[in-house]
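Hi team,

As requested, here is the filled-out complex form for the nicotinamide-adenine-dinucleotide run. I kept the field names the same as last time so the parser does not choke. Let me know if anything looks off before we queue the next batch.

— J.
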Amino acid sequence: MSIQTIGIIGAGTMGSGIAQACAVVGVNSVIQDVSDEALERATRTVSGSLDRLIKKGTMTEAEKAAAIARIRTTAKPEDFRDCDLIIEAATENQDLKVRILQNVDSIARPEAIIATNTSSISITRLAAATRRPERFVGMHFFNPVPVMALVEIISGLRTSQATVDTVTELAKRLGKTPIGVKNSAGFVVNRILCPMINEAIFTLQDGLASAEEIDAGMKLGCNHPIGPLALCDLIGLDVELAVMEVLYNAFSDSKYRPAPLLKEMVDAGLLGRKTGRGFYVYEK
Ligand SMILES: NC(=O)c1ccc[n+]([C@@H]2O[C@H](COP(=O)([O-])OP(=O)(O)OC[C@H]3O[C@@H](n4cnc5c(N)ncnc54)[C@H](O)[C@@H]3O)[C@@H](O)[C@H]2O)c1
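And here is what came back:
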């Protein structure tokens, strides 16, 4: 099956990025969110991001207008009826995702594929919330989606090869490099990355160095393009905490315990770039 129209659940950081990646290669999408404000922000974010491409000379005004016209926003999941693929990119919370997926399963055409962009929750478990586990798959994009080349394609226990092939082809059409991954908490990249960020937070909490020094250490000493704390601000501290909790529960291993400072900052609403403050302060 070749994917023509995509539904995206959640108009946050990832949902808007996926919509932009689709729009610039000519794929139509409809983004749904429970928050009107998130839908408006998503439209503004995509527009601003495409303006930067115009400034750089890699996109024309006409191309931008065509791309924007390919993105529709809605408050109603019923608007997913005609979609070939629906990508769930809502808040990282298992109960919420199960409810969303049960609802979308009842709305989507029987032959449509449902994918989830979860950072860490079991694909097999989320697939079981639907009546189409063979046509359910993980499509794990990276942030910022328009820039990052990787998509992890995660097979649940019952995901069919045809489903994997279809979404792999779509990822390539979006200009991405897909890698196939077996279902396991955190998949591959977050299983490695999130404990590294969590450890950086422990080093900050233990007063070993300042945030700037920790980030400089990892940039200059390990050749990372961005320090772990700045990366955590970009990802969102709430998302980092949710992933660590999933790893901790899945493996029952204390090496995955979230840093207390991370929990404190999430409780305080210091979620990183999206709230204007995390380990660093950002202009709104
Ligand atoms: N931020 C990252 O770096 C990153 C990277 C890869 C994957 N992910 C995953 O992508 C998903 C989304 O993350 P995000 O960073 O975009 O989060 P976000 O907080 O920026 O956006 C989530 C959006 O989901 C919406 N939402 C909540 N309940 C909803 C519902 N019932 N129906 C429709 N929309 C609903 C919220 O209003 C919000 O706009 C999560 O599963 C996360 O783990 C995030």
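Two things worth flagging: The chain has a mean pLDDT of 96. Strands lie at 5-9, 28-32, 71-74, 85-88, 113-116, 136-141, 150-155, 177-182.

Thanks,
J.
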